[in-house]
Amino acid sequence: MKFRFALIAGALFLAAGNAVAQSQGDWLIRAGVGFVNTDVSSDDLVFEGIPLEGYQIDVNNNARPIINVTWMATDNVGIELLGAAPFRHGIDGDGALEGLGRLGNTKHLPPVLSAQWHFMPGNTLRPYAGIGLNYTYFFNESATDTLHQGIIGTANAATGSDYAGGSSDLSISNSFGIALQLGLDVALENDWFINFDVRWIDIEADARITSSTFDGAGQPVTLNSRVKADLDPWVFSTGVGFRF
User: What's the pLDDT tens digit per position in 44-93?
Assistant: First the structure.
């Protein structure tokens, strides 16, 4: 294992023989794959204004292609914009809802604008740190029939009603939050480099569920539920970059 690591490290340093230092005015473009590892903390579901203790949600992980562009304002200061293909996440029951499985799905785009400090722009190994602002745009939200039936069943059990039929709609508010970043560019030949990056992003999902159903007389009834969760994912990415 040590021998293999030495070979890989040696190959990187040999490839960096003609590497060019990053400097003021450069543009750095990186493309690769990002893995979103959510760290979910869910509030209790609020049904018609009443919190239901232990009725919580979880959000699964996802990996998608990403791209980011950095403009070097100085030799050490960079301004970066992160973009990605839409991430798709399943929303599952947790706590008292864990046995229900999938409750919904959503997609999101997580653009991040960051200011970076590049510690050693002239070296082969070029670490950097950044802080920025994230805007998370949720779209294509959908609720499963499992979620709808769970809400109707909860309503019937709590109020003695006999609601039946209908469907539920899911809507998630967009989110602003800070983003923290650590990364490393490994210079290769000429203007090419390999990138490794990790971020923590402050994302809150405020989900509202509107359930349309019918009472025993066939009259339409609307039930409103809401649940908030901090997603706060760690985003791990790697890719290839080019400087021009």
Answer: 999 999 999 999 999 999 999 999 999 999 999 999 999 999 999 999 99
Chain Cα centroid distance, residue 81: 15
Domain that holds residue 139: 2-243
Query: Distance (Å, rounded) from C-alpha 190 to C-alpha 197?
Result: 21
Q: Identity (one letter) of the amino acid at 227?
A: V
Which CATH number is 142's domain given?
2.40.160.20
* Residue 4, Cβ density class (10 Å: 0-12 exposed, 13-18 middle, ≥19 buried): exposed
What was the pLDDT predicted at 159?
84
Domains contained in the chain, number:
1
Alpha helices in the chain (DSSP H): 2-15, 145-159
What DSSP string describes 100-167? G-EEEEEEEE--EEEEEEES-TTSSEEEEEEEEEEEEEEEEEEE-HHHHHHHHHHHHHHH----EEEE
Could you tell me the pTM of the whole model? 0.86
**Nearest Cα to Cα of residue 63 among 37, 41, 30, 40:** 37
Question: In angstroms, rounded to a whole number, what is the distance separating the alpha carbons of residues 161 and 175?
Answer: 36
Could you report the per-residue pLDDT of 153-192, keeping only the tens digit for each?
989 988 889 999 999 999 999 999 999 999 999 999 889 9
Q: How far apart are CA 80 and CA 115, in angstroms?
A: 6
Asked whether the beta carbons of 153 and 190 are under 8 A apart, the reply is no
| Non-local CB neighbours of 160 within 8 Å, separated by 6+ positions | none
Contact 54, 64 (CB under 8 A): no
